[in-house]
Every structure is written in C-alpha cells, then in structure tokens.
Recover the amino acids of this structure.
C-alpha cells in the first residue's frame, strides 16, 4: 500500500502542471471570439483571439495549432484552466529581451500607443517605453506614419522586477547614419570635386549634403572676394560644385571649398598692381584702424588710418570714407605671402604743405582764423585744412609773448608773414610781428656797445632815472649815475634834462639798451690820462682834466 500511494502521488505531481508556468496546448475550437485550448491533463482553457494578434495585424490562429500559454490557475469557477497567451508571450519576450540587452543586439517591435513624454512599443509580448527624444535624430512633429510598423529598436534600460523597458529608435538611425557616413567618406578624398545640395545656411557658412554626409562650406572658402553672409551667394536646396579640402577620419568632419575651383586672383596681383600705381576701388569695410578697399573680386587692400588724409589725423575712418564708396588709391606695399596690400588714399592728392610752400614763399603775408591758443603760441587756420603756428616770440615787438597772447581769442582773424615751411615735418611757422615795424631796431640803428648817446630824462625814481632815446625807454640805475658815490643821487636830475651816457649793452632779444653815466666818465678819464699824462708823473687829476679841456677848447 505504501508503494502504491507513493506511485500515485508521483503520478499526480507529474500530471498536474505548475501554476505560473508556460505550458503547451492545442487549439480544439474557435468560438465567440475565443480560442478553446486543450492544455492536457484533461484541462481546457479559453483565450481571446486578440491575444494572438500582433499590433496592427489580424489574429493568426487556426484549429489544430499548437501554442504556448501561461497557466494562471488550474481551475476557475466553471472548472476550466485560467490561461493567457499574452502572459506567455510576455514571459517568452522577457527571456528573449534580457539576452538581447546583455548582448546589445537590436530587437524588433512596433509603436502602438502614445503616452506622456513618448510612446509605447510592443516588443513581441513585452511593452516598452520609447521617449520622444529617442524617436528620431531630429524632432518628430507627426509620429503617425511610424505607428504599427515593425522596426528595430535598441534597449537602453530594462528592469524585469518592475516590468520597465526603455528603448530607442534614434540609436538605430544614428548607427545607420554613421555606417552610411563612413561609407560615403571612404569614397571621398581630399582635393576631389563633388556635387552637393545646400542643406542649411548659418552666419559662418553652409552645410552641404554630399549624399548621406554633410560637409561644411565655410564663408571664407566660398569666394576669393569678401562675403559678408553666405546667403549673398547661396540658397537652401541649391546644387553646388565643391572641392573636398579636408577630411577628419576620426570625427567624420568634412571641410569644403568653392573658391578653390576658381583661379586665385592673388597669383597676378604684383603684375596688375605695381607699387605707386593708382587704381579705383570700392570701400568694403570700415574699422577703427582703417578702411578695406576692394581692387577686384578677391583682392582687398587696407588703407591705414594714417594714410587716409594729409590733415585729418585723429578722426575715425568713417568720417573720411563710407562703405561702397568708390575711391582712388595708391599701392604702397604688397605682401603676396600674407596676401596683404597696403594702400594710400592721401597719396592720390598733392601734399598740401608742398602746395602751400609753392604758392607762399617765405615773407608772404597771409590771413587766417585763430583755431587754437596754446601756452607756446597761436595756431592759424590756412587753406586746404592745414595750420600755421605763430610762436610767442613772434607775436609782438614791444610786449613779451606771454603778455601779447592775451590780446587774442579763438575765431580772431589775424595777418601774419610766412617765416618757414617744413614739408617733411608738416609744419608752417608764421610771424605776426614781422608785418609790423621793429621800433627797437630802428631806434638803435648804428648804436653799438661803447657808443655815447644823449638821452632825455623822463622820470626820477629812488633806484635811478628813466631816460628816452629815439622813442626807446631805458633805465639808468643809481650806481651808474656818476663815478663819484656822492654824485649818485637821482634827485640831482630833473625831468627834461639832457644827459650823455655810455651804451653798455644792446639786447635785441629783450629789446633793451644798457646805459651808464658812470661808465662814460670812467672812459673819458682813461682817455685823458692816456693823452695828457698820468697821475704817476706828479700831475694831479685836476691838472690832467684841465689840460684836456683846454686842448678840446683849442680844437
């Protein structure tokens, strides 16, 4: 009996399937939208036909088909087995998907629904989440055409315990594109000429589709001339012929060029534009340091701000020329290696200092407006926007420069004489006093140091006397009024007295005469001693002077 019970128990364990497992069954009938399936062990169960259909497809099930189902419970209230095709497919799918995830292989699925943030995907029994950012390489506005279509996906994350799977369609597309790019790039070589379609335009260039791979056509490689914006010469969708300049095998970046297919105008620049030759050009760009002038398409030169005007030294180039203006320029220097041409604008006009020197020789009188007053003189505006300077020392004959300059204001119109023109230093020296009479020179004409002149006393002061000679005032100090100290008294003179004095100094710079009565007396005494004897012979000074006076009376 014990052996029989053990065998019976073993047979029951073998014949009764375990709940929660996948079992095989056979379709014995299809009725009322359900398939009746015999799972063996004298048990049958029912499964809705829709569980046998893939998303977007009709159910494919026939009587006699062998299928796998998931056994939930052995018996329900009606004495049937509770089975599910979906759960069987899910269990099967999870096993398959876990292997694919581990091996990083693609899986097939179909997008069948839209949820917040993305879509749901049927992966042959398991439902996965497809984030919106993983649908395509570019944002997708309408996902309708992608729904219900069987296509490959890459599993990004999965958690069987929580039942979560995240997939990506974008990763498949990027991989395909990378393979396609690699294939296209492998067929390209640097220097090759290819046709492409302008796909996108930016400020710095344009992206050109070369048949599955994009190349960058930089704005500086579009034309030899200056291109301010790529849209000036290209439009989206346009087919263009380009040359492959560089290929980066690692990053798959391709640099393209259009101007490389045209002849380089710089090859003939030195022949076409000899040094010192003058040409017409168009201003293309203005900067703080100068203006760029296009001589021909692809050849630009810089007119530095210092070469723009003879007279306007500290102004912005935009005050002298304007963009698109046609100007005459002179070629100053060419550096073909650096592709630079230095141009001059002012050189096409005559140097205004040369013109002035030709038309205004030294001594010429001019008239101009006081433009500026500085501590060292006046700046006078002349023709052709040039200035001349009157130094303090050239303002007046009679006043010191610091005093004379106080008589002038900006805007005053003055007359002056040209005293010097330095073309190289761009400097013109003028003199206002040169047009007036030099009263000092006229007054002291013929007067030299040592001369004795007769002056008229004009004022008596404690320190000496003021005298006048030919309209020129001089001052004789107290110590120079007489040889003898007792006679060095200013009060012994009266205004109007005529006095003889010896000239001790003629200073044209300060315009003063140095006079001394004492020096005259000493000189007379010396002369008398020389002619009529010396004090050493025993004669007194009075005797000598008396003899000198008698001699002069006889003469």
């Amino acid at each position: 009996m014990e052996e029989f019970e053990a065998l019976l128990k073993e047979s029951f364990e073998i014949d009764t399937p375990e709940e929660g497992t996948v079992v095989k069954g056979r379709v014995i009938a299809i009725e009322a939208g359900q398939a009746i399936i015999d799972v063996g062990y004298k048990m049958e169960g029912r499964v809705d036909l829709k569980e046998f259909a893939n998303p977007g497809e009709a159910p494919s099930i026939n009587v006699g088909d062998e299928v796998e189902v998931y056994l939930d419970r052995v018996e329900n209230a009606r004495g049937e087995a509770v089975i599910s095709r979906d759960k069987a497919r899910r269990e099967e799918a999870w096993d398959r998907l876990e292997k694919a995830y581990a091996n990083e292989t693609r899986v097939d699925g179909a997008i069948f629904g839209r949820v917040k943030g993305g879509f749901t995907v049927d992966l042959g029994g398991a439902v996965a989440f497809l984030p919106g950012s993983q649908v395509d390489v570019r944002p997708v506005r309408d996902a309708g055409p992608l729904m219900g279509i069987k296509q490959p996906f890459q599993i990004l994350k999965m958690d069987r315990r929580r039942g979560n799977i995240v997939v990506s369609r974008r990763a498949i597309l990027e991989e395909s594109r990378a393979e396609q790019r690699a294939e296209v790039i492998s067929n390209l070589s640097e220097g090759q000429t290819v046709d492409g379609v302008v796909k996108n335009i930016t400020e710095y260039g344009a992206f050109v589709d070369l048949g599955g791979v994009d190349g960058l056509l930089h704005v500086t490689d579009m034309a030899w001339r200056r291109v301010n914006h790529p849209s000036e010469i290209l439009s989206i969708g346009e087919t263009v012929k380009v040359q492959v300049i560089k290929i980066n095998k690692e990053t798959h970046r391709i640099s393209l060029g259009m101007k490389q297919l045209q002849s380089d105008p710089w090859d003939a620049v030195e022949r076409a534009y000899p040094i010192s030759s003058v040409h017409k050009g168009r201003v293309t760009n203005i900067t703080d340091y100068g203006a760029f002038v296009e001589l021909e398409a692809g050849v630009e030169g810089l007119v530095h701000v210092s070469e723009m005007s003879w007279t306007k030294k500290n102004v912005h180039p935009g005050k002298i020329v304007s963009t698109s203006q046609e100007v005459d320029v002179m070629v100053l220097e060419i550096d073909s290696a650096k592709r630079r041409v230095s141009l001059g604008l002012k050189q096409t006009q005559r140097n205004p200092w040369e013109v002035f020197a030709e038309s205004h020789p030294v001594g010429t009188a001019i008239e101009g407006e006081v433009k500026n007053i500085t501590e060292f003189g006046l700046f006078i505006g002349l023709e052709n926007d040039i200035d001349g300077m009157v130094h303090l020392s050239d303002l007046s004959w009679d006043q010191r420069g610091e005093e004379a300059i106080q008589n002038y204001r900006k805007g005053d119109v003055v007359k002056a004489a040209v005293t010097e023109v330095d073309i190289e230093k761009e400097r013109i020296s003028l003199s206002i006093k040169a047009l007036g009479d030099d009263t000092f020179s006229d007054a002291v004409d013929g007067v030299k140091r040592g001369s004795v002149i007769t002056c008229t006393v004009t004022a008596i002061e404690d320190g000496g006397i003021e005298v006048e000679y030919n309209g020129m005032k001089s001052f004789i100090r107290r110590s120079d009024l007489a040889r003898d100290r007792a006679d060095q008294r200013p009060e012994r003179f009266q205004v109007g007295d005529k006095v003889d004095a010896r000239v001790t100094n003629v200073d044209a710079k300060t315009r003063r005469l140095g006079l001394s009565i004492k020096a005259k007396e000493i000189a007379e005494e010396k002369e008398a001693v020389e002619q009529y004897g010396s004090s050493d012979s025993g004669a007194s000074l009075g005797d000598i002077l008396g003899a000198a006076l008698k001699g002069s009376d006889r003469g």
Remarks:
- The first helix runs from residue 2 to 15.
